[in-house]
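> call design_seq(struct)
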């Protein structure tokens, strides 16, 4: 993904009780993580593991003695003038996942649905972001190098401009719980970071991000940077997978140039552009879309398989992709825009070739390329599932023409068939497609080729 993952966009409850961030554990509403089972696989087979998901802390009501710590885009100076005191004062409350946030699991507890617009008791919620847990206090840490990750997706109800995303970020296993200024921890979804170094994260490492807070943009002085591996950014029209390495391990609380903001985009510690593999952008416009005319028919569910090739001890060499639909293994589209035999997977050479062809600055190589991404996969990353719209650039970088000031005929500008313009604005999308939703199911991780027999389970049959 190339642009800020929704500071304003992952917005939230609008009126009475604005969503807020967290550091102490709340006591007014109990927090019950929706259970979500996943499969761990080896060549000998797959085993179910009980997991769960937790809503990010930024969405939650943050209160002290029943009073908002954060309201109408700003902090209450009475309790939040000091970042550490603010964190100690304010408690994140439990979430009513289905009624308030439109987050639910099926009766088998192996499928998660995220709804776009949910009208709740306190106003309307737009989108959500949840993390996968292996206990009620810890995020599951995935180590994906020389492994594969797969899941089933249903994107049939995701229009242009809306993004159902599955990705990994190098968050702390306990969300920087420290027993003092952060007693909420992973239990309440703290500790988010990504390669865009978002400034809207309300608490970073146990301190409120209240310094220089701008209520208009709801962003603070500091950003939360960490490596990010986008497995799946998609709607029914377009899809991309994208490694975003950073030059520092774990979460870096950035300040100034290290954040890589605005015209310092390439001076920060993370590769914000990444090296995206977008089938449409790379030349195959009939590969992915709704209906039987497409190789992957997005009007029906399918499995997405991503393989991180490389040895356990060596560098990450290649990120492969294939799909499984209707009982058939579907190889990834070819990067025909780069010339014949340019491959159908992310490698350092494909990335360099793509940046040259599209006239993009190659920050991916400068930030260490696949080797640096592999280092983050080795240290371990947290699984994020989200649904969002994009107030910054209307998701044009995923499914339409971007940048908008260049002719659509310039190689790399067209990323999908969406018209863009007014029809991709959050305002239009929220009122026109409030019932948009995405379903993620059957999350699997294991050695290379081990999840294949278990992909796209439909009616009990396996591929
Ligand atoms: C995985 O399966 C593919 C296709 O059958 C095969 O080419 C490849 O060698 C396999 N990889 C491993 C590590 O077993």
């Amino acid at each position: 993904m190339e642009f800020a993952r929704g500071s304003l966009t992952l917005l939230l409850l609008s009126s009475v009780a604005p969503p807020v961030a967290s550091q102490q554990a709340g006591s007014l509403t109990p927090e019950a993580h929706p259970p979500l089972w996943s499969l761990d696989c080896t060549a000998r087979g797959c085993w179910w593991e009980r997991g769960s998901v937790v809503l990010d802390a930024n969405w939650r009501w943050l209160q002290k003695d029943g009073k908002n710590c954060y309201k109408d885009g700003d902090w209450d100076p009475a309790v939040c003038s000091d970042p550490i005191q603010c964190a100690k004062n304010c408690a994140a409350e439990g979430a009513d996942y289905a009624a308030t946030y439109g987050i639910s699991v099926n009766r088998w507890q192996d499928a998660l649905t995220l709804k776009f617009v949910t009208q709740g008791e306190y106003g309307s919620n737009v989108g959500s972001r949840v993390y996968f847990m292996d206990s009620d206090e810890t995020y599951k840490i995935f180590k994906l190098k020389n492994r594969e990750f797969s899941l089933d997706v249903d994107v049939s109800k995701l229009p242009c401009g809306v993004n159902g995303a599955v990705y990994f970020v190098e968050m702390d296993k306990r969300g920087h719980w420290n027993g003092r200024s952060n007693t909420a921890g992973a239990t309440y979804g703290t500790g988010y970071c990504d390669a865009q170094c978002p400034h809207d994260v309300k608490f970073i490492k146990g301190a409120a991000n209240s310094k220089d807070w701008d209520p208009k943009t709801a962003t603070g002085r500091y950003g939360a940077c960490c490596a990010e591996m986008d497995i799946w950014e998609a709607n029914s029209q377009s899809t991309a997978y994208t490694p975003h390495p950073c030059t520092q391990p774990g979460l870096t609380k950035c300040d100034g140039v290290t954040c890589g903001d605005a015209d310092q985009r390439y001076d920060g510690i993370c590769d914000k552009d990444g090296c995206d593999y977008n089938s449409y952008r790379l030349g195959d416009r009939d590969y992915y879309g709704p209906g039987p005319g497409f190789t992957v028919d997005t009007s029906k569910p399918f499995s997405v398989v991503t393989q991180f090739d490389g040895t356990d001890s060596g560098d990450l060499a290649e990120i492969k992709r294939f799909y499984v639909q209707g009982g058939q293994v579907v190889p990834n589209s070819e990067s025909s825009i780069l010339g014949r035999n340019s491959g159908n997977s992310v490698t350092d050479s494909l990335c360099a070739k793509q940046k040259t062809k599209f006239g993009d600055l190659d920050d991916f190589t400068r930030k260490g390329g696949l080797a640096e991404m592999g280092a983050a996969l080795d240290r371990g990353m947290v699984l994020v599932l989200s649904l969002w719209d994009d107030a910054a650039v209307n998701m044009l970088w995923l499914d339409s023409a971007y940048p908008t000031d260049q002719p659509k005929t310039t190689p790399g500008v067209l990323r999908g068939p969406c018209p863009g313009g007014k029809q991709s604005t959050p305002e239009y999308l929220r009122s026109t497609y409030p019932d948009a939703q995405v379903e993620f199911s059957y999350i699997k991780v294991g050695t290379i080729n081990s999840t294949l027999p278990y992909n796209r389970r439909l009616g009990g049959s396996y591929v």
